[in-house]
Design a protein that fits this description.
A: 281 residues, alpha/beta, 2 domains, four-stranded mixed beta sheet, 8 helices, 10 strands, B: 185 residues, fumarase, 6 helices
Chain lengths: 281, 185
């Protein structure tokens, strides 16, 4: 059995937190450039070019792309033949977040209690951690800091089977309209369909973090991804919600088997700063 | 591009129209969720506010910490709607302009009309770019709140767009309509 020391994991998490917040993913930057070229509305075009300039400035000056450096969401795909040694894996992850947010001059945005005692933990911990156990002897680590301007605009709905394709389409468009300027468009959107109440939200997050150019392996869903993105970019919301063509840069769908009585749908919304950075150990 | 310097007089504010692009310079104050709650609590207890609200501008932002040798970190706008409960109370005290992003409630729109104010939009997601416009920054109240503390900023040529003007026009409605009617192919 392969052994991996927790210290290595802490170091990796620390670096991923910093890099994810400073460097806009290449695929997002590229698609942003394409939309900027094709944007017909002057104010929208100007704002898209500022977002490109912002990404460049962040990279060069090593400043966060956005001040909301997010809740540190950590996704671990853990090979079943790996043995983590030297301490607690969870604590190693939290420690990586703690160090990354301190050394990277990232904003600490976590409060210890949601309702009665909203006191800042001052080190951006705890992280939100998801584990998947997979075959093999590697650990795949993905850090995706998520800002709450867009997180607050995510929605879930327990649709019924008879709501069908129309129900899904209407719900996705409603979520985008509700989000409007609040989610800092242009948006990156993940749609989860199927599973149950808790898994569908997770599916939508996984969809949101896909590479921009990826599409669903099944043709019906790949077409639906294209159709929804086209419709969203016909709403006129535009960058910052000031009007224009470019309302979303990408939309992906993730699906899972579900119950005979249901069709859960979740829509995760992110701004263009769809931060995610991963490594395989 | 309209160049403005704070404090903003009513004469200037009543000339601004939704959709105008503005370059703002001068003193502004930062404040978001927790700071607004405390400001309103101070008013309820009839205690003095940390700064004179009359004709001032509040920017809804919680910046990142800055490195040594830098004035300010990244600092784009946060979602304004969360301050909707508090905004009309502060406007009554003399606050004339808010900078943020996102929808405002009907009561905030009404307050902007009643007190001849303005709601500016800053570009969400452009935190590094906007941070460069801050030439001075000083925490003046609620330092225990960290990123949420109230800061007195001096900004130079901060790029803004008028979202809601004092006549109640809203760019979130007008911009979309203008694009769909005149630019959409």
């Amino acid at each position: 059995m392969r052994e991996i020391n927790v210290d290595e994991i802490t170091k990796v998490i620390k670096n991923l937190c910093i890099e994810a917040n400073l460097f806009l993913p290449k695929d997002i930057e590229k698609v942003l450039q394409t939309y900027e070229i094709n944007e017909p509305y002057p104010l929208a075009k100007k704002n898209l070019s500022i977002l490109l300039e912002n990404a460049q400035l962040a990279r060069e000056k090593r400043k966060p792309i956005c001040q909301d450096t997010g809740m540190a969401c950590v996704y671990i795909r853990m090979g079943q033949d790996v043995h983590v040694v030297g301490g607690s894996l969870n604590e190693a992850i939290h420690e990586g977040v703690r160090q990354g947010y301190q050394e990277g001059y990232l904003r600490k945005s976590i409060v210890e209690d949601p309702l009665f005692n909203r006191v800042n933990t001052k080190d951006n911990t705890p992280a939100t951690i998801h584990y998947d156990i997979v075959e093999g002897n590697q650990i795949e680590i993905l850090v995706a800091p998520k800002g709450f301007g867009s997180e607050n605009m995510c929605q879930i709905k327990m649709l019924k089977p008879s709501d069908g394709l129309q129900g899904v389409t209407e719900f996705v468009l409603k979520v985008v309209e509700d989000a409007g300027p609040n989610a800092c468009p242009p948006m990156v959107i993940g749609v989860g369909i199927g599973g149950n109440f808790e898994t569908v939200a997770y599916l939508s997050k996984k969809a949101m973090m896909k590479d921009v150019l990826e599409s669903h392996p099944l043709k019906e869903y790949a077409n639906l991804e294209k159709d929804l993105l086209t419709r969203i970019n016909e709403t006129g919301i535009g960058p910052a919600g000031f009007g224009g063509k470019t309302t979303a840069l990408a939309l992906h769908i993730e699906t899972a088997p579900t119950h005979i009585a249901g069709m859960p749908v979740a829509v995760s919304i992110c701004c263009h700063v769809a931060r995610h950075k991963g490594v395989i150990l | 591009m309209i160049e403005l310097t704070t404090p903003l007089s009513k004469e200037i504010l009543c000339q601004l129209k939704a959709g105008d692009e503005v370059s703002l310079s001068g003193v502004i104050y930062t404040g978001r969720d927790a700071a607004h709650k405390r400001l309103v609590e101070l008013l309820e207890r009839q205690q003095p506010l940390p700064f004179e609200m009359k004709d001032q501008v509040i920017y809804y932002v919680g910046p990142t910490p800055h490195k040594e040798g830098e004035v300010f970190g990244s600092g784009g706008p946060t979602t304004s709607g969360r301050m909707d409960t508090y905004a009309p109370i502060l406007m009554k005290e003399g606050l004339c302009a808010m900078i943020g992003k996102g929808y405002r409630s009907a009561s905030v729109k009404q307050a902007i009309k009643d007190y001849t104010g303005v709601y500016f939009g800053a570009l969400g997601g452009a935190g590094a770019y906007i941070g460069e416009c801050v030439v001075q920054s000083e925490v003046i109240a609620f330092s225990d709140l960290g990123a949420e503390a109230i800061r007195r900023l001096v900004v130079k040529e901060l790029p803004l767009t008028v979202v809601i003007d004092c006549f109640g026009n809203d760019l979130y409605e007008l911009g979309k309509k203008d694009y769909l009617e005149h630019f959409k192919k």
